[in-house]
Structure formats: C-alpha cells, structure tokens
Amino acid sequence: MKILVIGAGVLGSYYAARLQQGGHDVSILARGQRLLELQTHGIVLQAVGDNKQQIVPIRSIGQMDVKDLFELIVVVVRAQQIPSVLELLKSNESEAPVLFLTNNAAGPTAFIDALGSARVIMGYPNAGGTKVGQVVHYYAPRWLERIQPITIGTSLDGSLTHPKNIVNTFKKAGLNMTISSDMDAWLKAHTAFIIPFILSLQAEGNDPKRLAGNQAAMARMIRAIREYLRVLRAAKVSLSPKGFLYVAFEKMPESWLAVLLKQVLKSPNASFTTTNAEAEFGETQSLLEGMSLLTRTTSVTTPNVDELRRLTKT
C-alpha cells in the first residue's frame, strides 16, 4: 500500500519505519532539520533498554504537492498542529482515507468540515519515546502492544470499510490495532486523565518522584480527574471504552488510588512521561480548550482543575 505519514517526530518516525518494514511503500513528510536527518540517515530506531540500532531507509519529502496521491495518509502530530495539517490536506487532490493518531478533546467537527466524514478516522497511538539527535528511542514492548493496541474508530460517517483495511495494513507490519465504536468518547475520556496528570507533573517541576511524594498534589490530581469524569457524565459522553477503569476512579477510596498512581510515577518508565510533559505545553493548551468548552455545557464545577491551571499558568 502507498502510504504517507505526516509528522516525523518519535511516533510518526516509529510507525513509518514499521510500515515500511512491513512491505508498504511509505513516504514521510518532514521539515527543516528533521528532513535533512531523514534524507541523510533514514529513520534510526533504538528500542529503550537495547543498544542495537536499526536504520530504515525511507522516502522523505518536504512538501505535499496538490497531485500527490496515496492510498492511506497517517497523521501523527500534536493537537495544536492539526489546523495547519487540515489546510494541507484540503489542498491535495487525494481521496485517500486519513487516520489521525493524535489527542483530540474538541470533537470531530473541524475534521469533517475540512475533509468530509467518509475519509476521516480518529485514533490514538500505543507507543512512546524520545528523540536524541537523529535517533528515535522508542518504547513499544510486545506486552504493551498486546494489552494496549493502537485504537481507531469507524470512519466519521459510521462506515467500517476504511478502518478494517487500515487494521489489516498495520497488522501486516506487526502492529496491533483495534476498532472502537465511539472514538470521540474514547479520546475525551483519555483527555480526562492525561490533563490532570500532565498539569500535576508540571506543577511539581516535571519530577515524577516529587509528585509521588507530595500527598496534597496527589490528592489534587485524583480530584481533578474525578471532576473531568463528572463533566463527561454530565455531557452524556460514554465512558464505556474503558468502563471498569472509570468506575474504579469514581468509586475507589482516594488513598488507594494514590498508592496505585505512586507506583506508576516511581516506575522506570515514568521518565518518558516526564519528557513528554515538558514538551506538551502547546498540546496541553489545546486539550484544555476542548475540555473547557465541554465543561461549560454542564453545571459541573472543577476547582481542582482550576487550581492546577493557576499553578501551571495554563
């Protein structure tokens, strides 16, 4: 399959390389220094905890021409970059389905207005990592791919044709993927967790151990998550994609949740969360705007979210 990946950061590079290794004809869109790195070195991958590097030669382009045609376009960028990507895609004559693997709390309206409901598939990645120089240090262990596959929705017109083809395309490359019946709700529910988590990290100097050791900060984070869950329920947003997790967060004693979250924050992999939190100011702002709009449609108050915003000046 002829595929274009838009976004040459950690995740865009990782998925582009895996799809290329899976036998697909992949191009990756990059700009500036990153384009030069890809043209010179290809995609250089190194799994976290492994000293071995893989070099994946790949076609890299600096712009998307009007008549460039692809069978699938995969967008892996930050939420605040979506408007410019939509403008780029609108100017192209391709009718290919477009898979957006990105955070989104604002809903699908902008995507439908730009591309139409039949072409757009929303989704969320299942990997992470950092980039040092031209080397992509990725974190995507097999056990994580099994229990947390890449999640995508139906086309926004409700069709399953494009999503099923995409699942097969990714599985051919060894990438586990599943289809959610309500991806918009899935993304909003995901945002309800990550925004308090990222803001709490930022308020504690992006130090996960410091956050874990601050009882008041942990309590504020848990209460902020619960406030957003109340917003979602009041706005009639389904919590079924991860229903058990949400029920646990709403019903479990705060002290128990704090113990569980401290273990996450003290784990060796917390450093990747910290690195992402440091780089996520623009994305956090975009997601906060989406959640604020949703909150204003309800009567739910969010004092702990508001306090986190004050502490982080967001």
Structure description:
With 314 residues, this protein is of the alpha/beta class. The protein folds into 2 domains: 2-180, NAD(P)-binding Rossmann-like Domain (Rossmann fold, 3-Layer(aba) Sandwich); 185-312. It contains 14 helices and 12 strands. The protein has helices spanning 10-21, 32-41, 82-90, 109-115, 142-147, 161-172, 183-203, 208-212, 215-234, 243-251, 254-265, 270-279, 281-295, 303-312; strands spanning 2-6, 25-29, 43-47, 53-56, 59-61, 72-75, 98-101, 120-124, 128-132, 135-139, 150-155, 177-179. The strands form 2 sheets. The protein has an 8-stranded mixed β-sheet with strand order 5-2-1-6-7-8-11-12. Strands 4-3-10-9 form a 4-stranded mixed β-sheet. Helix 7 (183-203) crosses helix 14 (303-312). The chain is globular and about 55 Å long. The termini are far apart. The mean pLDDT is 91.
Helix/strand layout:
Elements: E1 2-6, H1 10-21, E2 25-29, H2 32-41, E3 43-47, E4 53-56, E5 59-61, E6 72-75, H3 82-90, E7 98-101, H4 109-115, E8 120-124, E9 128-132, E10 135-139, H5 142-147, E11 150-155, H6 161-172, E12 177-179, H7 183-203, H8 208-212, H9 215-234, H10 243-251, H11 254-265, H12 270-279, H13 281-295, H14 303-312
Parallel strand pairs: 1-2, 1-6, 2-5, 3-10, 6-7, 7-8, 11-12
Antiparallel strand pairs: 3-4, 8-11, 9-10
Helix pairs in contact: 3-4, 7-9, 7-12, 7-13, 7-14, 9-11, 9-14
